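tool_call: predict_structure(chain=1)
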Amino acid sequence: QEKLVESGGGLVQSGGSLRLSCTGSGFTFSRHGFSWVRQAPGKEVDDCVADISPDSSRIWYADSVKGRFTISRDNSNNALYLQMNNLKTKDTDMYYCLRDRFRSTEHRGRGTQVTVRT
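tool_result:
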C-alpha cells in the first residue's frame, strides 16, 4: 500500500520556524518528484509552494515563500522535508506532501496543520 505521512506542523508565532517531514512507503521513493502544497479545508485548488525532482537537481519555489522555505529530500530514508523560516500569518494552512503533481500517479498524504499567530 502506497503511503505518504506528513509530520512537523504546529502552532508558531510570526517570525518563527517549523520543519515539515514526509515519509513515503510502499513505492520506490527515489523515482518520483515531490511537491509541498497547501490547501485550506473546502478550497478546491491547492497552492504549490515548492517542488523537487527525484535527484534534487531541480527545485522550484513559489514567489510567496522564496528565501524563507527550503525543500529537500533524503532518498536513502524515503523522506521529504520543508524547512520554513520567518513564518507569516498568511502561511497558516494545511500542508500536504504530494507525489507526481498533475500526473496519473499523483498521490498525497493526509496533511499537517501549520498555524502562525501574531
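agent: The chain has a mean pLDDT of 96. Proceeding to next step.
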